[in-house]
Design a protein that fits this description.
The chain has 4 helices and no strands. With 91 residues, the protein is mainly α. Helix 1 packs across helix 2 and helix 2 packs antiparallel against helix 4. The longest helix has 24 residues. The chain is elongated.
Length: 91
Amino acid sequence: MFATALLATNLLRPEPAPEILFLYSVAFASIPIALFPVRARILRAYVAQQQNPDIKMKPDRLAMVWIVGFLCTVLLVAVLALLTTRYDMHI
């Protein structure tokens, strides 16, 4: 909650926000969004592991593919957004 309040405060300032703030905002927003659709599958696997600690559990492939794919897509879009913005070059 503190990080969200800090980012919101910095984004509302009248001066242009630095690029690192944009990247932090993307990171803070994308991780919960990536976990939200597969949270039940992850929780089910966690509970099964806690109930049977001796049994080796395999990671859920669908959840793993979704999280990695979503975060890679977000990273690509964030980098493309930064590359297409106009930089003020002070020489």
